[in-house]
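Appendix B, Record 12. Input sequence as logged:
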Amino acid sequence: MAKLLQAPPKFLPPEWYVANKVQYSGAEAQRSRSERLVDESQRLVDEIEKTTQKTQSDVNKKIEQRLQEIKFWKQQLNDKLDQITKETEALLAFRSRLEKALEGCKEPLFIAQECLLNRERRVGIDLVHDEVERELIKEVEVLQGVIALLGRTLEQANEQIRLNRSSKYNLEKDLKDKLTALSIDNYCSSLTNNTPDVAYAQNVVKVEENSVSPKEWVDFSNMNVEKADKQRNNSLALRALIDTILSQTASDMRKQNDVVNTAFRARVKETEDAKSKLEMHLAKVMEEISSQEKNVESLWKAILDKEGPAKVAQTRLETRTHRPNVELCRDKVQCRLMHEVQEISHNIQRLKETLAQAQAELKGLNRRQLSLEEEIEVKANTLYIDQVLCMQMRESISINNY
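Logged structural output:
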């Protein structure tokens, strides 16, 4: 038992002094290293704090700069969006004017074509290729040309409206992204070290695959702005062209309409004058027919009136042939009776020839009467077509500046 409870070996005093010195020197070294570490740590903390604050301050400035850049381009996009929107609305109004102008051409074209069809119902010599017909054909060509031009211009307007809307869509999309980016960077700008909802995030220090460079970012918005400007300028030029086309086509249509109406009035006056002269000649022919009929009756009566003298003269001659013997003398009475019979026969023949001429002339006058009446009907038909069917219909033509 005594052996088990043996005391540990004792060290010598020198060993004790040495051990203490080792402890003293070790502690001093440890303390010295610790002091240096504390000093270095404080310097590091101070350095890192300054670096962190400087970096964070620089980041805050960069965010502010970025916010200003976004705001600048947002304003640019807003301005261009407002301009292209107003320009598109203005072009839509011009398109409406084009559509109304196109619609407005339909009635004049229909009327011009109807006038040509109606004038095909003229008859006889009045079915003439006159100035009215030439101008009506020209009017149809003018109207068809105007309709074709307005149709092509309308297609241009529709295409430009599509391009304007495409630019507007790109601006709106870009602007929407800018607003989102502005909201995000505004939120980032508001964050501080004491903001409650800040937290660590994993895998944030990376470059997104779909990210772009600052130059690409600027170029993208600048391209949208330039496209909007280009389409707006094209739209402005197209509106100016449309305005000129509408004004010019309306002027051309109005001018040709006036020319046709003037030709119609002149032709109607010519036809009325011709009809009036024909009626005057008809009246004279009717008077002459009446006079000739009386002449025929007079000739017939004259021929009939000669029957008595002829019979008397011939009876006298026949009776005197019964004179006896020497009394059958060719005396003056006999000679005169013979001359009287011949004279009466000759005169009756002359009267019959004149009667035949008078009857032939009367037939000619009757034919002329029918011809004049027919021609007057032709002129009346032409006047009805030109005055009633055509000119009254043309009064409804209204050519407006749309």
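DSSP finds five helices and no strands in the chain.
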